[in-house]
Fold these 3 entries.
Entry 1:
Amino acid sequence: MASLPISDSNFVLGQAPVFGDPSLSTNRTFHAYVHVPFCRVRCGYCDFNTYTASELRGASQAGFASVLRREIDFAKAELQRQGFAPLRPASSVFFGGGTPTQLPASDLALMLKGLADTFGLASNAEVTTEANPDNVSLEYLSELCAAGFTRVSFGMQSAVPEVLATLERTHQPENVPTGLQAAKQVGLQNSVDLIYGAPGETLQQWRSSLEAAIAMQPDHISAYSLIVEPGTKLARQIAKGELPEPDEDLQADKYELADELLSAAGYQWYEVSNWSRSESTRSAHNLAYWRSQDWWGFGPGAHSHVGETRWWNAKHPATYQKALENDQGIQPGSNTPAAGSERIDSSTRLTERLLLEARISDGISIVDVKNSNSHANRVISQLIADKLIDGPAALKGQIVLTLQGRLLADYVVRELLG
Ligand SMILES: C[S@@+](CC[C@H](N)C(=O)[O-])C[C@H]1O[C@@H](n2cnc3c(N)ncnc32)[C@H](O)[C@@H]1O
Ligand code: SF4
């Protein structure tokens, strides 16, 4: 799940984001996210920025890759104009959505080529696409591999037909192992996303899904607690009493079961919702977000973070397309699809680092916590006593969550922030 929250507040199309001091980026790597905002149908639980064919208001799925290439030109022009030159090669690229695999593989290849020709790719760059199990084949995946993709992440969610039905997933469960096998055959690193806590899902059903995921031996597994997003069909069904609300205690049991089964099968947690078979198969792209590196998010609604600034693009593909269409070509300072931005000052930057890095297994240094919280010593001692952070790691200067701490990660982070 590599996209970030999407918002249309401060919607001022036409103002190029101002990145601020380039020296802040000197020690950061550069990454690219490409948001492909198309799905065949919308799943009942999902509030990602995605559109079915009838919601596109004239935006063209077929023309998407060439519109996105314009934003790549815009990014190059703006980064150079604002002193972020020479351009840094992309250390990772992530195509997320929506459903990137709704597009022909040749369109994904075209966008990746645009990024590689413009920025270059670091020598061991990770290049991932999210995939719906229903729209990939061996041919599709080998075309992606030939184009430079290195990794594929399947939206599996569950192996249990009743749970998939509650989630309104339309994919055929048997297409997940077939797709994963094909990914292995063509040499792509691979991952599956699971969701736990669908209304009515039992612990036994969740166990079946975990066992089915483990049996396929993917390189990486993400397990997300279902979020009931306001405005979704699922939220309305729960509000009307048609479906029960997810139970918090059962969710905790499901997280513990996930960690138990995944650890026993050789997967190690490296972020609260992510487990990997080895260090080399962790998601480099997501780690870049959690470590506050620089990234440009291309596409409708995508968020970016460069230098001192975060900004986000217009959400609707038609608005996004209009902002980038201009017969005069890309003009620095114009043609921007950005809809709003915010400057991140140094204290906000530290707070955000704590929020993100505390959730990864490398943890965050106690020195950073002390810089943000004058009661850090007392808080840390209490968290160790409550078995929420690891005592031996703290003695070595790092705050690392225990299993109980991962279950209460938001509470621990609030305490650390003071
Ligand atoms: C963009 S989707 C993945 C690709 C593709 N669209 C699919 O669903 O097969 C990214 C992931 O976000 C997760 N996700 C989406 N909505 C969620 C929600 N409300 N709660 C928890 N996880 C969610 C799902 O696990 C999903 O696989
Ligand atoms: S297919 Fe993926 S992005 Fe599309 S609605 Fe479902 S979960 Fe959301």
Entry 2:
Amino acid sequence: MKRLVVTGGAGFAGSHICLAAKAAWLDCEVIAFDNLLRRGSEENLARLAAGGVRFIHGDVRQTQDLEALGAFDALVEASAEPSVLAGSGGGSPNYVIAANLVGALNCAEACRRHGAHLVFLSSSRVYGVEALRACSLAESPVRLDFAAAQTQAGVSAAGISSAFSTSGYKSYYGASKFAAEQILAEYAHAGAFPVDCVRFGVLAGPWQFGRADQGILTWWLLNHILQRPLRYIGWGGSGRQVRDFLHADDMTDLVLRLLQSPGLLQNRSLNAGGGLGVSASLAELTAQCRDLCGGGPEILADPVTRYADIPCFVTNNEEISGLSGWLPRKNLAAILSDAYNWFKTSPGLLDKLSRL
Ligand SMILES: NC(=O)c1ccc[n+]([C@@H]2O[C@H](COP(=O)([O-])OP(=O)(O)OC[C@H]3O[C@@H](n4cnc5c(N)ncnc54)[C@H](O)[C@@H]3O)[C@@H](O)[C@H]2O)c1
């Protein structure tokens, strides 16, 4: 590969992908394309430059910004408004739809013009909220798990596979990602260019700025470090809701594998996440954060469940592992300690983040 564009390249996932790609393919020009909408993404620019990545300021909503890039061999679409709550509560969903759906369409058109490979970072949020809430759960005092016996397709004790229902509402964020997936699948099936689409679960690791919309794990951890009060929201306010977590290094490992083998996912949108072994309830996460930080803030209970909240999401990686050989390698303790060390050892970082 001679030229790679990563949209959202100054963001959390995008910056990790840019740097890993440049390190793996020294002769490749790697371009981080980003409109720096995310507060904090500007902090990545020096790190990208030091790693030999070129930054270009641009917006995926603007076709002329993508056209100005010229030809490239592959594009990783990692830009987004990533908040599940974007547009809810009386706000406008205009930006989340324009950036995530129209932006993905514009990326697809750029790939079509250059015959380039497109890797799309989709989300586990494409699955229907009501279908996820209807799964049978096994309840323990500290967590909720998928029960062994289920009535819906695509869910088992091992988690959610791509066969799970995408029907029903899923948040503007999830809907924009799902709609983009559908359009990209049409390009792929029409043979316009190869597309590989991954529905990532919750991502985490260093260079995630501890904001709730970027990923719950580092936000929870940062609030432990800064001793800021937290709330267990929804599901009775007991903190038993469960997610699995994927380290940024495992995410980049998968994306680089896909870049090396265009079309590897055979036009299917497949899940990738930490899996059951790297899952935790909020209550369990609290215990680990307290161990790491030597204590933590007060945690209040807010029993009201919000419209897009789900009690449990654990990724079943079987399909993507079968096609790519990829498996996550970093466990929860490694993800937490990597993020913790980054927060604690980067000069001035905690001060900056406490003001973001
Ligand atoms: N963080 C997660 O847990 C998670 C989980 C599943 C999928 N994803 C997906 O991964 C991708 C990366 O997410 P992230 O966590 O790195 O988020 P992020 O907010 O850190 O990065 C997104 C980047 O996109 C940029 N951006 C936003 N709008 C843009 C636009 N119109 N044009 C150009 N750039 C724009 C932002 O400035 C930011 O730097 C997104 O597509 C997201 O949907 C993230």
Entry 3:
Amino acid sequence: MKITKIRTTPLLCKFKQDYHWADGVTLSSPVVLIEVETDEGVVGIAESGVGPTIEPMLAILHDAIPHFIGKSVFDGNKLIWDYFRSGFKARGVGSQYRLFSRTMSGIELALWDAIGKCIGQPVYNVLGGALHEKIGYFGFVQGDRPEELAAHAAQLVQEGYPVLYVKLGRGDALDLAIVKAIRQVAPDVRLRLDANEAWDTLRALRMLEKLKPYDIEIMEQPVPGVGGSEALLRIRSAGVPLSADQSVYLPEEVFEMCRTRAADAIVLGLHETCGALRWRKAAAIAEAANVRINIHGIFETGITTCIGNQVGATVPNLDDANQIMWQLLEEDLIESPSLTPVNGFLPVSKKPGYGFELNRDAVARAHEEYLKRRTWAPV
Ligand SMILES: [Mg+2]
């Protein structure tokens, strides 16, 4: 089965409410829809994560696409890394794995969808079979002020989420008020916090001490990821379990994080690893260290939720409260299946490929929004 065309459609998917986190307020999710067409009429669909803006990633994708045309959909492993060496690294940007991975992940992931659809099997079977029938997701608490966040937290507990996840790094007093307010309405829920690299060592130690009475299950990446395992090791003495997010993109970085015992969990998305193969390699390294891996979410749609659900089903050390992002959108791109977790879990689709149907009208509207605004950063 040969690749005949790869279509790229830039999309800007608006959030239903302002998204507050350590780096400010974000209003929309930018993605590039990737559709790999084949000579057998099968179309593999995925999306590339975008950053910092859509246009440079589109330019890289358009440079890469000719390398794939006329080649077999079963050669993704070779084609992706041939292009990395000859089309990317050879131009002097070999250290830019993160940009490469987030850009090219859409093609790698769409090829798995095409293979699954071609043989009539879900992607988890293409990857060797599922270990999980359903995948767990955390309740992602949204809002600006503590009272808004607490009200949403109470609602998520009512909906049956066993784990809640809250963004911090918005100022110490506000952070503490948010956690206090949430604990008042959700005293027993497993609570995870993410400060998105906002704190230096001293501030992190001070904040973790103040947060201890609130029974924090995991503190995610409170210090800059560029500091790697060393930055997390410096705050280990606080005694709060830590997870690594921005510290870790590559399997090599997972190895280092596990080797140094700097993190208790690894948070890693399929766009960050350039797709399913390297995400599973990273998961296997963490498994060898008895460390669980959490499917990271970033600015994305339900397409990525469906992908993570399939690929995540194949690894034994998958976390039970992964990140889910599509619900933040005013309108998702998925027509079916329903991606609303029940008691915090989504079943793993048994349909061919990733098992989703796109809402083409929603895609057209998100493309219109891109053409209108062409930017995702609030001003
Ligand atoms: Mg994070």
